[in-house]
Amino acid sequence: MPTLIKLFSMQEVSLHNSNHDCWVVIDGKVYDVTTYLDEHPGGDDVILAATGKDATDDFEDAGHSNDARELMKSFCIGELDMSSSPAIPELEISHKKQETDIAQKLLNLTKQHWAVPVAMVGISVVAAFLYIMRKK
Questions:
Q1: DSSP bridge partners of 25
Q2: Among the listed residues 19, 22, 21, 89, the one whose alpha carbon sits nearest the alpha carbon of residue 53
C-alpha cells in the first residue's frame, strides 16, 4: 500500500515560526523541528532564523554530517506543495550607474562640498608661510 504524504503550502509553513512551534523546509520537505531546538548543536537561533522560508541553502552551507541528515528524517512531516507556492518574482535590474572608483567618489564629494578643500588649501598656505617666516 502506498504511503500518503501530507502537502503543506509555504504560507502554512511560515506560520510555524516560533520556538514553541518551528517548521523548516529543506529540499522540498517540511520538518517540524520544535522538539529538536534545544538539542541543535548550533543553537536554536540558527534554526529559528530559517523558519518560514526554504532553508536548503542554509542547511547545505552549514556542512551537516551524514548522521545529521539521518536524524532529520525523523522530523519530516510532509512535503512542500509546489503548486501552491507563489511564482518567483522577477528581479528588477537597476540601470543606475554605480560609482566604484574611489577617486571619482572623492571628486564628486568635493564638488558638493567645495568649502572643505578650499579651507584645507588655505590652511596649508598659511602653515607654509608661517614655517618660511620662522626659518628667516
A1: 30, 54
A2: 22
Give 1-37 as a DSSP string: -PPP--EE-HHHHHT-EETTEEEEEETTEEEE-GGGG
Size of the chain in residues? 136
pLDDT of residue 94: 58
Q: Which amino acid is it at 123?
A: I
pLDDT for 58-80, tens place per residue? 888 888 888 888 888 899 999 88
Between CA 76 and CA 21 the distance in angstroms is 14
Measure the CA–CA gap between 48 and 57, rounded to whole angstroms: 15
- Burial grade of 35 (CB within 10 A; 0-12, 13-18, 19 or more): exposed
- Whole-prediction pTM: 0.58
Nearest alpha-carbon partner for 37 in 27, 22, 25, 26: 22
- All three cell numbers of 56: 536548503
Query: Nearest CA to 10 among 108, 85, 118, 99?
Result: 85
Strand partners, 76: 31
Q: DSSP secondary-structure letter at 86?
A: P
